[in-house]
Design a protein that fits this description.
Helix content is about 80%, strand content about 0%. It has one domain. Helix 2 runs antiparallel to helix 3, helix 2 packs antiparallel against helix 5 and helix 3 packs antiparallel against helix 4. About 30% of the residues are buried. By secondary structure, the chain is mainly alpha-helical. The chain is built from 6 helices and no strands. The model has no long low-confidence stretch (mean pLDDT about 90).
């Protein structure tokens, strides 16, 4: 029990934001894969794989007292996931804008885009948050 108490005693508010970003990453992956998982034209499994890798590596770095690097890895991987999403969903957006087959954006597209936007903003902001307390703060 003392180990857990000392572990959380060293962590600053940025660590908890990292946990929130991890949950947002999982939610974003779930929304994206459930919305477009059966439509290979719009689904990028590479995005999911990169985001999972970033999630695992980022949390591992945060646990091993390298929180600044963990937050950066998660942000980079989430950004790569966003770029893969944009690459795959581009054709859908063009079809809607031109009005070839459909005239409105689907709720799946809106949900995925909103979750990716929230995730990227939170990931980038998390890079600048303090992840670990200094030795003076822990001793106090």
């Amino acid at each position: 029990m003392n180990i857990v108490k000392n572990f959380f005693k060293r962590k600053s508010y940025g660590f908890y934001v990292t946990l929130v970003v991890a949950v947002l990453t999982i939610i974003t992956m779930a929304v994206y894969s459930s919305s477009y998982g059966t439509v290979p034209r719009y689904m990028s499994w590479t995005a999911i794989g990169v985001m999972i890798a970033g999630l695992v590596v980022g949390l591992a770095l945060s646990v091993f007292n390298l929180g600044q690097w963990g937050a950066a890895v998660m942000a980079i991987c989430n950004f790569v996931g966003l770029m893969q999403y944009i690459t795959k969903i581009y054709n859908y957006v063009v079809v809607v804008i031109v009005g070839i087959d459909i005239n409105t954006l689907s709720s799946q597209f809106i949900a995925c885009t909103v979750f990716f936007a929230i995730l990227i903003v939170a990931s980038i902001a998390n890079i600048f948050f303090k992840q670990e307390k200094s030795k003076e703060e822990v001793a106090a």
